[in-house]
Every structure is written in structure tokens, then in C-alpha cells.
């Protein structure tokens, strides 16, 4: 009797051999491609919470801020400056796997490198810029602190850089103080620098009055076209003549964002008692010589750092409020919104005295009093 068309075929004692060679090879290739893709350099940098430094404490046995030439007072408590660690950037490429890990990390921020640095920027450029911004923040913090305390000081317009091959090259030197232009005395504020620039743009000849190491000089310059503008080829900045010396022991930290905390620490050392009342206060904010507190980058990472350091209070520039409130760890802190050094000074005094019910707070970017 023959087998019907719909019956099952006879099964032998040996199972048919399955071929996996193609699938195995495909899987290996896919895995290898994933590995290679993960290691490809990508043009991004990662911002992460950095070290927390108490400006009222010592660093390697030396006070972080030392004031000499006037009476000072011992300060206690915590006025913490906050930092942002950066991975990647010019000459320090990251790979895709590093970036992907930080994309999902709530404490990190991934940004295109070009958002911060032009393509031609070198690592030395970054280091130099950060150092210059830190030095500037120390000087402006000192000016703001003295202004808050009503202590007089002098300011001048100084030459910070001379462009090689420009009309000023060979006649003007870095660190010269510009005291007059075409015979007209100028002050030491930002308006004075603008006066010099405006005069240069509208004149065939400019006579600069300079102070160089105590000597008065006059130099005559003919402005030239530089990058499409009439210039003499100098970069100007404010410099200060303070009635006493303020020295900062800060290494390996750059940028302008410590200005507000520096100013508060100087105020603490120049006034009797403990400004903080022994409280743990962290904060951030660039500052102007007039005491205006400016928003900064990396606020999200600084909140995380402050919370991890067990700070009780966080002083935030009003312009950073929205970012601060969204940051991991903000619920563990009392966030205080500040627009000026006077705001920050008053807030710290209130914190020290436990008058915290009416501290100005962040509410989605606006200050609430």
C-alpha cells in the first residue's frame, strides 16, 4: 500500500545538519561595525560636574585668598566656588560611545565643539583664554567687593595686547596705561575705552598719552585698515590700582564664573565676624566691576556639584534660574536668585541670621521676592 500524498515523510535516525556559517559571519561583522562606529572620533564635548572649592579655606596649606596691606578678619564657613569639568574639545577628541553615555546621564551636557570653539582653536588657545578670564574675574571681583564696601580705588584703561605689524606695534606696549587721547584726559571705565575706539575710527592721526612704569609718554599713530575697520592695533581692558593687595591661590581653574563668590569671600575677610554664619553656601556668577551678576555656562553641572558637596544654599544668577531649577539635585538646595553683588551680600547675611523666609528665589527664570 503506497503512502498517500498528505502523509508525513519517513524520519531517519540522523537529524539534518543546520548551516549557521552565514549567520555567524554576519553577526561578527555587525558586532565589529558597532565597535568601530563607537570608537570613531566625534566633534562634541561633554560638560560634567567638577571640583568644589571653598574660598574661605586653604589650598595646599595656603589661603585661597590672601589680603595684605589692610586689616582683615578670620572667616569661617563655606563659600564654595563651583567648576565644570570638560571632556573633549580642541585636540582632545571623544568617541561616539563616550558621547552616547553622557547623552543619557542627567548630570552631563553634550554640545558640539564648534558651539564653543572655532575650528582653528588649539588646546593652548583654550588654556590661555581660560587663564585670562580667571585673572580678569579676580580683578573685577576685587573691584566689585571694594565698591560694595565703599572702599575707593582707581581704575585705568590698560593695553592688554598689541597686534603685530599694526600702527601701534613698536610704539605701544602691553600693560601701558592710556590716560589721554588727542590731549583729552580719559577715565578708567568702559566708556573710556569706547572713547579711544571712537576717536581712532574718525581720525587720520591719533596722539595717545601713556603711563609706562611711572613715566608719561605721548605717541602719534596713524590708524590703518585692520579687518575692515580703522584701528591702531591695540586691545584694551580695565586695570585697577587698589589700596591694598589681594592675592588668589587658584591653579587649574579657568573662566569668569567664580567672580561673585570671590567678591563675597573678599567682603568676608574685610569685615568683622563670619559672613556665612558657618553655613554651607555654594554659588556661581560672573561679575562686573560695578557689581552686576551675569549668567554663566554649565549651571546644570554646578547644581549637581553643590548638592553632592552637601551645600545648603545655592546662589544663582537670575538669568540661569530656569536651567538651575531643572538640574538634578536642585530640590536638595535652597536656590537663591541674585542680580547684583548687593543682592548676594544681603542674602548671605540673611542666611547667617536664619532670616530665610523671604530670600529671593528662582521661579522658572524670574526672581520672586
Automatic annotation (TrEMBL):
SUPFAM superfamilies hit by this protein: PDZ domain-like (SSF50156), Ribosomal protein S5 domain 2-like (SSF54211)
Keyword Transport belongs to the record: no
Transmembrane segments: 21-46
Assigned keywords, A-Z: Membrane, Transmembrane, Transmembrane helix
Domain of life: Bacteria
Residue ranges occupied by any PDZ domain in the UniProt entry: 147-186
The keyword Membrane appears for this protein: yes
Protein name: PDZ domain-containing protein
Source species of the chain: Brevibacterium daeguense
Amino acid at each position: 500500500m503506497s503512502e498517500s500524498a498528505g502523509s508525513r515523510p519517513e524520519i531517519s535516525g540522523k537529524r539534518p545538519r543546520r548551516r549557521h556559517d552565514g549567520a555567524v559571519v554576519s553577526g561578527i561583522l555587525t558586532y565589529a561595525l558597532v565597535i568601530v562606529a563607537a570608537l570613531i572620533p566625534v566633534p562634541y564635548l561633554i560638560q560634567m560636574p567638577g571640583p568644589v572649592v571653598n574660598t574661605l579655606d586653604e589650598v595646599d596649606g595656603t589661603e585661597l585668598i590672601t589680603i595684605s596691606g589692610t586689616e582683615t578678619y578670620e572667616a569661617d564657613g563655606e563659600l564654595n566656588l563651583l567648576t565644570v569639568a570638560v571632556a573633549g574639545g580642541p585636540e582632545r577628541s571623544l568617541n561616539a560611545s563616550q558621547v552616547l553615555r553622557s547623552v543619557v546621564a542627567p548630570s552631563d551636557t553634550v554640545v558640539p565643539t564648534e558651539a564653543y570653539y572655532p575650528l582653528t582653536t588649539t588646546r593652548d588657545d583654550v588654556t590661555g583664554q581660560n587663564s585670562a578670564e580667571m585673572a580678569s574675574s579676580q580683578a573685577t571681583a576685587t573691584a566689585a567687593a571694594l565698591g560694595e564696601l565703599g572702599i575707593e580705588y582707581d581704575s585705568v584703561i590698560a593695553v592688554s595686547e598689541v597686534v603685530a605689524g599694526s600702527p601701534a606695534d613698536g610704539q605701544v606696549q602691553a600693560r601701558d596705561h592710556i590716560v589721554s587721547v588727542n590731549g583729552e584726559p580719559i577715565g578708567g571705565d568702559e566708556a573710556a575705552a569706547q572713547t579711544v575706539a571712537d576717536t581712532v575710527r574718525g581720525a587720520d592721526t591719533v596722539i595717545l598719552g601713556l603711563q609706562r612704569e611711572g613715566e608719561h609718554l605721548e605717541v602719534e599713530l596713524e590708524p590703518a585698515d585692520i579687518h575692515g575697520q580703522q584701528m591702531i592695533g591695540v586691545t584694551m581692558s580695565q586695570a585697577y590700582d587698589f589700596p591694598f593687595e589681594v592675592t588668589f591661590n587658584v591653579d587649574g581653574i579657568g573662566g569668569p564664573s567664580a567672580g561673585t563668590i570671590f567678591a563675597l569671600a573678599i567682603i568676608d575677610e574685610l569685615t568683622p565676624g563670619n559672613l556665612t554664619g558657618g553655613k554651607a553656601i555654594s554659588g556661581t556668577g560672573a561679575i562686573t566691576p560695578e557689581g552686576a551678576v551675569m549668567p554663566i555656562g554649565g549651571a546644570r553641572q554646578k547644581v549637581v556639584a553643590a548638592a553632592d558637596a552637601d551645600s545648603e544654599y545655592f546662589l544663582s544668577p537670575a538669568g540661569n534660574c530656569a536651567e538651575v531649577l531643572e538640574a538634578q539635585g536642585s530640590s536638595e538646595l535652597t536656590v537663591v536668585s541674585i542680580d547684583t553683588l548687593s543682592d548676594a551680600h544681603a542674602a548671605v547675611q540673611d542666611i547667617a541670621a536664619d532670616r530665610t523666609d523671604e530670600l529671593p528665589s528662582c521661579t522658572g527664570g524670574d526672581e520672586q521676592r
